[in-house]
Amino acid sequence: MADLSTTFAGIRSPNPFWLASAPPTDKEYNVNRAFEAGWGGVVWKTLGEAGPPIVNVNGPRYAALYAHDRQLIGFNNIELITDRPLEVNLDEIARVKRNWPDRAMVVSIMVPCEEHAWKAILPRVEDTGCDGIELNFGCPHGMSERGMGSAVGQVPEYIEMVTRWCKQYTRLPVIVKLTPNVADIKPPALAAQRGGADAVSLINTINSVMGVDLDALLIYPNTGGTGSHGGYCGPAVKPIAQNMVAEIARTPEMAWLPISGIGGITNWRDAAEFIALGCGNVQVCTAAMTYGFKIVQDMCSGLAEYMDAKGFHNIDAFRGRAVPSIVNWNQLNLNHIEKARIAQDLCIQCGRCHVVCEDTSHQAISATKDGKRHFEVMDDECVGCNLCVSVCPVPECITMHALQPGQTDPRTGQWVSGEYANWTTHPNNPARLA
Amino acid sequence: MPQPDVKAGRLSACQYLTNFGDAHPPLTNAQALIEAERCYYCFDAPCINACPTGIDIPSFIRRISEDNLRGAAKAILEANIFGGMCARVCPTEVLCEQACVRNTNEDKPVEIGLLQRHATDHLMASNGAPLFTRAAPTGRRIAVVGAGPAGLACAHRCAMLGHEVVVFEAKPKPGGLNEYGLATYKTVDDFAQKEIAWLLSIGGIEIRHGQALGEQVLLADLSRDFDAVFLGLGLGGVNALGLQGEATPGVGNAVEFIAGLRQTRDYAAVPVGRRVVVIGGGMTAVDAAVQSRKLGAQEVTIVYRRDQPRMPASTYEQDWAQRNGVTIREWSVPRALDTDGGQVEGVSFAQVQELNGQLVPTGKHWRIEADTVLKAIGQTLVLADPGLATLALRSGRILVDGEGRSSLAQVWAGGDCTYGGRDLTVEAVEHGKIAAHSIDRAFGIQRGGKPFTRTRTGLGA
């Protein structure tokens, strides 16, 4: 059986599944239940500085985007950091860690961008016996208006500065949680690294407005008639998160920087993908908020079965294996040519491949043959775009096949050389290399 | 000698209520949404082509999934003004749902019929603005004979096109088979009349009852007084067994039995034999047999001359009959009605087999005891009007062209009275619609927009 245990930024965990800093990790009751269910670790919901607790709205904090049958695929929240007194949280963290010594206990922190504020809170957090801290530089709503959360995460200099303070005032591993609400994720990640971060975690949530109530013509959800943007997460953000993770993982200066992958992880496959993109572990929130803590058992089961089937004895055996496959567009092999192929024995004749190819500029799938309904790719028109594969309701019915060296592309009449050639040397590129 | 056992009130009031309630309850909102989301929104969707009225099924289903039930209903009703009734009575398993690509994918089609009912029920229950309006008055007047699905579909489309329509109907209520010819549990709560009231709300359609063609009204007069005539006569006659004793009490025809049940207000007052034999293999046979069971008959047997796969009733209907405790016996033709003391007491059958496409007796006979015998061996066109003497027929039905034109000038026809269909409500609606457009074209009126090009199929050479 595959070994699922991880050591991430020096923090040991029986499996790579941590609950992200969020409502499910706000108190002892929940975290005990999470650990009973089998979660490898938690990042305790973000603590603020001592003093009067944070105030939340007393109306809708959440809203969802649905796919078929109300399957939740996107999720939005406007909840702030913990609204419980700091002392209560610290007591509970200490107690839970004592009771669950084999689980990872990381504490998320967000205090003002002032050295004394960090200096004041860090020893108190360290006293709980927790395993590490995560700096919440990501929260895009509410706290960001007060100069915290993503307001820090959007300024690399602040990230570096605060990270440096934390490394100075605590011996705990420091994980910097990054906001995706930036044009380029690399500068913030590099700043964290310069500040001495032991790891980064990403992504936090994305600025979002979930919808409009079309009867009232008001933002939905709203708090008595007005609403503000929230933070978007859930399955729909996974591709955005994976891009940002990959951007960091494939930057040579950050090759060693541990990444905790976050963003729409709902099942073992999502987790395995993040690991293959270089993540040392993953954090989950929306899936637990949608289905409850028990899902970690299914995630562990799936991941272990996959690893066994692939012969991966531990997480490191496949961590980052997909990273080299991600390159800039200008490195793509323009001599590689694929054509779609429809397996007629699997085709259910819905014709969606045909109509989308018709309406999306290539007109490469015929709809009839000998007067009968029949869908077939015309290789002399197919550019290999994968749209038909994307819309086909039947898995594996339409597949892509590469032309082999020596074959002729019926679309261009040109022979497939088998040699690699990218845009940088392409004759149509005015700035081509010699 | 056992006494014939025919009586009413075999069941408790509660049992009647259950037995004659909606056989296929409507979808809930939640069910409809989940089912609607199963539609793949196919290109040139096979279900559309399988629908005799060409309803844009993927569009109406998508509209259901987008919470646009009125838009969904419009997509249905603009192609089929009886979309509500067809949602209840169409043999979808051999029409749209048979064509659904989900059959290939997972052997379970989208429940198109139930979704169609969901959308149309919503429209009927709402008090929104009218879906359809009338074009500018043309001054043309059209006579429609028969207020069944074909006649009223023609009338409605003619009214939409701006013509004035008078419908001549022999029976006291409109609807034809929708009102008199379907099993009660297929269309509960007086739906047929509600749907027709909604249909007529477009205006420009007058129905005159008690007007049988050849009796109270003559084709010659209609041809003289109207600009066009549409015949939606249905099939008024019932085939006889050709056996002695057909007039004996206890022997009846299934069509009348079904009509009686539809019109009764008290099922407990409808007599039925303890043992019922229904002779025939179509939808009428199934409706009569199942309703006999639902009235409390203990033994109900359908006897068909060929084997089950070739029964005109669909496989689904056959299953429905058998699930309701009806026995189906094959390869038998009636040879004698056994009567005693002026009452039927059984039927004797000759066993047959098929040789070179012909049914020939095997020489074996069998007999079944019966208190009620119902004939359901087909209906016939009745042409009582002298003006129809020269009408071209094929297989006993009116011959029409692709536009529904008969051999008589200015006379169109559609529905079961015409040749080339499967005797389905949905086909009758299509015939009426096509004829209305043909009539409109014959008037030479120029209309903008996309031309109507649908024509009748199945007419043969």
User: Proportion of β residues of chain B?
Assistant: 15-25%
Radius of gyration of chain A: 25 Å
How much of the sequence lies in strands of chain A comes to 15-25%
Shape of chain B: globular
Specify which chain pair forms the largest interface.
A-B, 13 and 14 residues
Tell me about the largest β-sheet of chain B: 5 strands, parallel
Mean pLDDT of chain B: 95
Show the helix and strand layout.
The complex is a heterodimer of chains A (434) and B (461).
Chain A: E1 6-8, E2 11-13, E3 17-19, H1 28-37, E4 41-47, E5 62-66, E6 72-77, H2 86-99, E7 104-109, H3 115-126, E8 132-136, H4 150-153, H5 156-169, E9 174-177, H6 186-194, E10 199-202, E11 206-208, E12 211-213, E13 218-220, E14 230-233, H7 238-249, E15 259-262, H8 268-276, E16 279-284, H9 286-291, H10 295-310, E17 338-342, H11 352-359, E18 365-369, E19 372-377, H12 387-391, E20 398-402, E21 408-409, E22 414-415
Parallel strand pairs in A: 3-4, 3-16, 4-7, 7-8, 8-9, 9-10, 10-15, 15-16
Antiparallel strand pairs in A: 1-2, 5-6, 6-14, 11-14, 12-13, 17-20, 18-19, 21-22
Chain B: E1 6-7, H1 13-19, H2 29-36, H3 46-50, H4 57-65, H5 69-77, H6 83-89, H7 96-99, H8 102-106, H9 112-125, E2 141-145, H10 149-160, E3 164-169, H11 177-180, H12 191-200, E4 205-209, H13 219-225, E5 228-231, E6 237-238, E7 251-253, H14 254-263, E8 272-273, E9 275-279, H15 283-294, E10 299-303, H16 315-323, E11 326-329, E12 332-340, E13 343-355, E14 358-369, E15 372-375, E16 379-380, E17 393-394, E18 397-398, E19 411-413, H17 425-442
Parallel strand pairs in B: 2-3, 2-5, 3-4, 5-19, 7-15, 9-10, 9-15, 10-11
Antiparallel strand pairs in B: 1-8, 6-16, 12-13, 13-14, 17-18
Helix pairs in contact in B: 2-4, 2-9, 4-5, 4-9, 5-9, 6-9, 10-17, 14-15, 15-16
